[in-house]
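Subject: Protein record for review, amino acid sequence with backbone structure tokens
Why sent: The fold of this protein is of interest and is recorded here as tokens.
Enclosed: The protein record, placed directly beneath this head.
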Amino acid sequence: MKLPTALMPLEGPVFRSLWFAWLAANMTMWMNDVASAWLMTTLTDSAVMVALVQSASTLPVFLLGLPSGALADISDRRLYLASTQLWVAAVSLLTAALAFANALSAELLLGLTFLNGIGLAMRWPVFAAIVPEVVTKGQLPAALALNGISMNLSRVVGPTVAGALLAGPGTAWVFVLNAVVAAGALVVILRWRSVKRQTTLPGERFFGAVRIGLQHVRESPRMRAVTLRVFLFSLQMSALVALMPLVARRLSGAGPGMFTLLLATMGTGAIAAALLMPRWRARLGRDQIVLWGSLMHAAASGVVALAPATWIALPAIFIVGMAWISTANTLSTAAQLALPNWVRARGMSVYQMALMGGTALGAMLFGSVAARFGVQAAIVSAAVAGVLLLPIVRRWSVGGKDVNLDLVPATEVMEPVTAVQPDEGPVMVTVEYHINPAHAAEFVQVMHLTRAARLRRGALSWGLFRDTAIQGCYLEYFLHENWLEHQRRLERFTAADAELRERRLAFHIGEQPPVRKRYVGDQRYHF
């Protein structure tokens, strides 16, 4: 029987096994967050400390996301993903031991939550980079939606299991189960045999990989827009997530069961929305989905905060879950489609840094508001702020043609050169164009796009000069760190780069192709 469109990626055995591993990994995250958040309410009455559990869980992603993405791009992704699960299992066992010994304080719990968050910071970029490798481009939106289902199914199952353990055997057993589930995910990941990336060049250096990852995102208009939008949306949604334990205490039946019920209902709403996403994508553009998702999230969050009874809060938080996954999935898809594979983990780590940075900042900010003005005021103020920002941020589109650029690798041939050592540099390339002066304005516009493309592929600097003696003569130059980085740009060349090259060459009117020269810096001279 053929699966529905939303579930078709699960037909692939590789994606299916990785999806279940991701489900297990997410379950450990939610069980840890639920247990830590509820345990914190028993260790302190401070709303700030309760909110800081969310910050401690997400702040590592903001601090370590880009280094983690760089490591995921330059190392074996299978082994790297497996090591993240080993880390989570170890932290869970340590937390369980301290909980059994009644040795946990509020401050120590925050520290352990931060250590667990490091596991999330390590694993998210590498998994985000793996998904496009194991599904087709046409299935990518559905695969990312399934990842959202995994996240939210774990949001239902994880808190439910954690809530049962909290109400029964006790908090320590939640962390024991965390370690067991993380170990199971580790086994599944180790059974997967990833495809080795083909390259004849040595691996990238860590700090160079970090620089190029940041530079790629900075020079990509679509990634800049997505990063800004996800930061602001996570800032908006953070108040309700961080303060949900206190919302649960206010409703009838206050206790671990109510907290679990709210999280499970939110997760169920997200699953429902993920299954409906193919139909919504067929009718609405990405910008429209983000707009309506942000508005619905704000409105439903306000209802949850002000709801006088559980029967009002539950439908509202169901809508919160639907709005959250539809917005987050749309932004994540836009980011994935804007990134070539060679820098995907780094690009997605910047995306995740923006998401978790907004969440951590929002938790601290609105936790402080809650401490001074109350939980309801904090959640409502976050919702109002999100709505007021929408007219400003709508100009940063996450749709458009360039998000669907063909980023599959293409071939760029370099002319033969005399022997140059890999570490020699810097390397400067010059290209001389002769164009019709009447088309100078259009040529400069194309060269502006060329500048961004060269920098995204690792160039240190770029410039365009007009010859004062020869009308219509332009000289382009760009600089690479060394000869190895100059060669590496060939492996980063995509079909979109090839199309842009043809647009440049269409302006050239000389009988011969543009003259291209390469110069290697002489290390004997220092200026």
